Amino acid sequence: MRIITVSREFGSGGRELGKRISDLMGYDYYDSEIISAVAKNSGFDTAYVETALDNHGWHDFPVTFGGTIHSTAYLQASKIDLLIQQKKVIESIATLGKNCVIIGRNADAILKEYHPFNIFVCADVEAKIHRCRARARADEHLTDRELVRKMKEIDKARSRTRDFLTGSEWGQCESYHLTVNTGDWDLKALAVAVAAFAEKWFESKE
User: Which terminal Cβ of the chain has fewer Cβ within 10 Å, N or C?
Assistant: First the structure.
C-alpha cells in the first residue's frame, strides 16, 4: 500500500495538485469524502462538520463552565469530538490497504506508522492571491489585505490543530519528503513531476 499526504498553505493549490496526482497514479483520493464520513458517524449535518473542521472554528470557543457560558463549552467539546472522529476516519482509510492520496487533515502525522510520502505545498503571497481570486465565489469581495489576513488566519488555525492532535509543528520541513512551491508552475505539469518523484520514492522503499 502506498499513501501520499498533501499538506498545504491556504491558496497554494495543494488540493488541485493532490487530485491531479491521484488521477495520474490511479490512486484513491480523499478530501471532502472525509468530511462526509465524519458527518455520517457523528450524526451532525455535513455543512456543520465542514465549517467546524475546515474553518477550524472550534479554536474560537474558550473552555469555560457555568452560567450562560456552559453551552459554549459544550459546543467546543462537540467540535473537538469531530476532530477525534476525523482522526479515526483517516486511520480507517489506511486499514483499507489501498493506494491513496489524502489532502490535509494532518494525515502525514496520523498515519506515520504507514510510512506515507508526505508533500508540503506552498507559494508566494502574490500567487496565492491570484489563485484565491480565480476560485472565489461571485459574491466574495475581499481586498488583497483582507485576503492575506484570511490566509494567515487559516494557516495559523491549521498549525494549532496539528499541535492539538499530534503535538508536532505544522509546516516544518523535516516532516515532509518533498516541499513544492507552486508559484511559478502550471499545476498540470507540476503534478506529472511530483507523481514521478513519488513513484521513485516508493520504489526506493521496496
Answer: C
